[in-house]
Amino acid sequence: MRAQSSSSSGALSPLFLRLLAAVALMTASACVFPGVAALAEDAPPYSQAQDVVYGEVHGTGLLMDVFTPRAATNGLAIIDVASGAWHSDRSKIRDHTLAQMYPIYCARGYTVFAVRPGSKTRYTIADMDSNLKTGIRFVKEHASQYHIDPERLGLTGASAGGHLATLAALTATPSKPDAKKAKDRIGTSVKAVAVFFPPTDLAEWETGKPSDAQLLRSLLYLPGAAPADMEEIMKAARAASPLYHVVKTDVPFFLIHGNADSVVPLSHSQRFVDAMKKEGNSAELQIKEAGGHAWLTIPEEVRAMAKWFDEKLGNTMPRSAP
Question: What's the CATH code of the domain at 103?
Answer without folding.
Answer: 3.40.50.1820
